[in-house]
Amino acid sequence: MKNHFLVMTLAAASFALPALAQDTPAPADAEVYFINLSDGDTVTSPVLVKFGLKGMGVAPAGVEKENTGHHHLLVNRPAFGSEDAEELEFGIPADEQHIHFGGGQTETTIDLEPGEHTLQMVLGDLNHIVHADPVMSEVITITVE
Asked: S-S: 32 plus which of 39, 121, 132, 143, CB 3.0-4.6 Å?
């Protein structure tokens, strides 16, 4: 009987999870961008990165408030969602290529080795999940001297 209950619980959860993914709306005109960096810039490390947001507000992770989210910085990875569709559906991973700013931070300083690096901003909802209409910047390439 325990196994039957476990199977039924897991089956119910598997149907419930996709309903949670990407169900937070975002305004159609929302935009996230880099304030102080542009594609092709040459910089020195540590790199100051300032996050810009239009059409929405910033709220820490875990805070449910309409038309808000928090920043995520993607470093040296393909464009968000281009080959990792599960990121869009199940949340943004947390590792050295997916840096979370769940406290509502709007800037950071990162250490990067000399050479070319790609950066992209992605806004996540209170659960680190991309909004129903993803709010993300273009990928930019910077060179660190």
From this structure: 121
Q: What are phi and psi of 116, to 5 degrees?
A: -85, 140
Tracing tokens 């975002």 back to the chain, one arrives at 26
Q: What is the pLDDT of residues 92-139, one digit of tens each?
A: 889 999 999 999 999 999 999 999 999 999 999 999 999 988 999 999
CB contact set of 108 (below 8 Å; sequence gap of 6+): 48, 49, 73, 99, 101
Supply the DSSP symbol for 132: S
- Given a contact cutoff of 8 angstroms between Cβ atoms, the answer to whether 56 and 69 are in contact is yes
Q: Is the CATH number of domain 2-144 3.40.50.300?
A: no
Please, which residues bridge with residue 28 across strands?
none
Rounded Cα–Cα distance for residues 52 and 125 (Å) = 16
Could you tell me if 74 and 119 are in contact, meaning their C-beta atoms sit under 8 angstroms apart?
yes
The model scores a pTM over 0.85 = no
Copy the structure tokens of residue 59: 């709220």
